[in-house]
Design a protein that fits this description.
binds heme C; about 425 residues; Jelly Rolls; globular; alpha+beta; 3 domains; 9-stranded mixed beta sheet
Length: about 425
C-alpha cells in the first residue's frame, strides 16, 4: 500500500512538471506515430488521419477521452494473463500527455522539435512486398442486401517451395470488405476441385467437408480484419507455401449503400533463406454450437492434444456478435495448467491477434483448451436477434467459436501432424 501511494505520488509530480509545457511537436506527435498512425492515416481503418498537427488539432479532446477510457488504441487481453509483444496500450505518462495537451489548448510547439514523419510504403505495413497477388477480376458488390461469402482461387505458379517471412492482405475497398482470409491450396488437393481460377463463387462448406481429406485442407496464410496487423514472422521462422500451390481467398463483403467494385490483393515478403522453423496455424473449434434464445451465458469448450512438440507464438479468438469471452489454456503433460490468453470483453468489431512476447514451448502431449461464452440475451447491444436459436455458420447472425493459434514447428511438420485426425475440428476451414 505504501509503495503504491509512493509511485502514484511520483507519477503525479511527473505529470505536474510535464503538464504545462506539453506540445504537439515534442510530446504528442511521437505517440501518434508509435501508437495511432498505423490505423489513423488515409487508406487505413481509422475514421480520420492523425499525421499532422492540422489533422490532429480538432481531435484533441476526443483523443483525450478515447485514451483515458482506454478505447484507443484497441486492446482486449486481460493484463493478468500473459504478455504480448503487440500490446499497444499507452503508459499512464502517455495518457497524461494527451490529457495535458488538450487541457493546455492543444499547442503546436516549436517546429524544430517536430520529428521526421514515418515513411509508409504505398500503404503496405510489411514494407515493399517481393510479390503482390491481386484478384484478377473485380468483384461487384451490390448497394444493398447481403452477399454470400465469396471464394476465389488464384494460381501462384510458384516453381519451388516458398517461405513467407511476411504477408499482408489489402482490401480494394475497405468500406465493403468486412474480412478476408487467405489460404494456400497444395497441388493435388481436392478442395474446391474444378473451381475456375479468378472467378468468385460461393462455397458449399458441407460439401467441401465431405469431399476433402485432411491433407486437402487449404492452409491458413493471413487474415484481414480491421485493426489486425499483417502476419510477420521473426527471422528464422516462416510460413510455407508449397510449389504449385494456389492462393484461395475467402471474402466477406458487406454492402454499404453504393455499388462498389473490389479487387483485394495480398503482398508477400519471402524469407531470404530456408527458416529453422515453420509456422503453422491450428485451431480449437466447437462446431456444435446451439445457443437457446435469450441465453446470456452459453459456454463452449474445445481441446486437442499435441502429437508433436510445438511453440505457441500467437493467438486470435474468433466469434461473432454474441461472443463475449474467450480463454486459451494449456495443460502440460505434467498436469500443470496455465491460462495463456483471456479476453474477458470480446468485441466483434475488433478481431485482434495477440503475439506472445515469450513464445511458449509445448512438449508433445500438451493439451490445448479453448473456452468461449456467448450472450444471446437482449442485454447484448450487438445481438441481432435474441429470439433466435443460434447455430454454427458464416454470417454474423450465426455464431462461431474458434480459437486460432500460430505454432512454430520443425520445418518438415505440417498442421495436420499436430493432432489426431479425429480431433481435427479444423476441418471446418
Ligand atoms: C488498430 C487500429 C487503431 C489504432 C491503433 C488506433 N485507432 Fe483510433 N480508431 C480506430 C477506428 C477503427 C475507429 C472508429 C471506430 C471506433 O471508434 O471504435 C477509431 C476511433 C478513434 C477516435 C474516435 C473518433 C470519433 O469519431 O469520435 C479517436 C479520438 C481515436 N480513434 C484516437 C486514437 C488515438 C489517439 C490512437 C493512438 C493512441 C488511436 N486512435 C489508435 C482505429 C484505431
Amino acid at each position: 500500500m505504501v509503495l503504491r501511494t509512493l509511485s502514484f505520488g511520483l507519477f503525479l509530480s511527473f505529470a505536474a512538471v510535464a503538464g504545462p509545457n506539453v506540445t504537439f511537436n515534442k510530446d504528442v506527435y511521437p505517440i501518434l506515430q508509435k501508437r495511432c498512425q498505423s490505423c489513423h492515416r488515409p487508406g487505413e481503418v481509422g475514421p480520420m488521419a492523425l499525421l499532422t498537427y492540422q489533422q490532429a488539432r480538432p481531435w484533441a479532446k476526443a483523443m483525450r477521452e478515447a485514451v483515458m477510457l482506454k478505447k484507443m488504441p484497441p486492446w482486449f487481453a486481460d493484463p493478468h494473463y500473459g504478455t504480448f509483444s503487440n500490446n499497444p496500450s499507452l503508459t499512464q505518462a502517455e495518457i497524461d500527455t494527451f490529457a495535458n495537451w488538450a487541457a493546455a489548448g492543444a499547442p503546436e510547439g516549436d517546429a524544430k522539435e517536430l520529428g521526421k514523419p514515418v515513411e509508409f510504403i504505398d500503404g503496405w505495413n510489411i514494407g515493399k512486398p517481393d510479390l503482390v497477388v491481386e484478384m484478377p477480376n473485380a468483384f461487384h458488390v451490390p448497394p444493398t442486401g447481403y452477399v454470400d461469402y465469396q471464394t476465389i482461387v488464384i494460381p501462384t505458379n510458384f516453381k519451388q517451395d516458398m517461405w513467407i517471412q511476411a504477408a499482408e492482405l489489402r482490401p480494394g475497398d475497405r468500406s465493403v470488405v468486412h474480412h478476408v482470409t487467405a489460404f494456400a491450396r497444395q497441388p493435388g488437393s481436392l478442395a474446391f476441385a474444378g473451381a475456375e481460377p479468378g472467378i468468385a463463387f460461393r462455397q458449399d462448406r458441407e460439401k467441401q467437408r465431405k469431399l476433402t481429406r485432411d491433407i486437402d485442407r487449404p492452409e491458413y496464410i493471413v487474415g484481414y480484419t480491421p485493426g489486425r496487423p499483417a502476419s510477420e514472422f521473426v527471422p528464422g521462422e516462416a510460413r510455407l507455401i508449397k510449389a504449385g500451390s494456389d492462393i484461395v481467398l475467402s471474402l466477406h463483403y458487406t454492402p454499404n449503400g453504393k455499388a462498389v467494385e473490389d479487387k483485394t490483393k495480398i503482398g508477400f515478403i519471402f524469407a531470404k533463406e530456408p527458416p529453422k522453423r515453420r509456422v503453422v496455424n491450428v485451431m480449437l473449434a466447437d462446431p456444435n454450437i446451439l445457443i437457446p434464445p435469450g441465453e446470456p451465458n452459453y459456454r463452449t469448450d474445445a481441446s486437442f492434444t499435441l502429437q508433436e512438440p510445438a511453440t505457441l507464438v500467437r493467438l486470435w479468438p474468433h466469434m461473432h456478435t454474441r461472443g463475449k469471452y474467450y480463454e486459451y489454456r494449456v495443460v502440460f503433460p505434467t498436469g500443470e495448467s496455465q491460462v495463456v490468453l483471456r479476453v474477458p470483453n470480446f468485441d466483434f468489431a475488433w478481431q485482434l491477434s495477440y503475439n506472445l512476447e515469450k513464445p511458449l514451448y509445448l512438449p508433445k502431449g500438451t493439451r490445448l483448451e479453448g473456452t468461449a461464452y456467448f450472450d444471446n440475451s437482449p442485454n447484448n447491444p450487438n445481438n441481432p436477434d435474441p429470439k433466435q436459436e443460434v447455430h454454427w455458420g458464416e454470417q454474423s447472425w450465426d455464431e462461431m467459436s474458434e480459437g486460432y493459434m500460430d505454432m512454430a514447428v520443425e520445418p518438415n511438420i505440417g498442421p495436420g501432424d499436430l493432432r489426431r485426425a479425429k480431433e481435427s475440428t479444423a476441418a471446418l476451414n
